[in-house]
Amino acid sequence: xxxxxxxxxxxxxxxxxxxxxxxxxxxxxxxxxxxxxxxxxxxxxxxxxxxxxxxxxxxxxxxxxxxxxxxxxxxxxxxxxxxxxxxxxxxxxxxxxxxx
Length: 100
What we know:
mainly alpha
């Protein structure tokens, strides 16, 4: 298991995982600081526990699945794969020195 697979900002699941964690933190803050009645405590506590569960599930799915290669993800915006491909095609066209 590679924990480095958690960092996949190009995937929607990564951002959902971040939002689950932020919402869980917000619910925990609300439980500790706001004066809630019994129903409010149960409701906010239940939402916090659901967010923890969904956050763990999203983290597990991110760690389990290998990230897609950058070329297969479409246009990444940096253009690195396109420049590498054009350089490779130019190298194929130029014959090595000293050959006839």
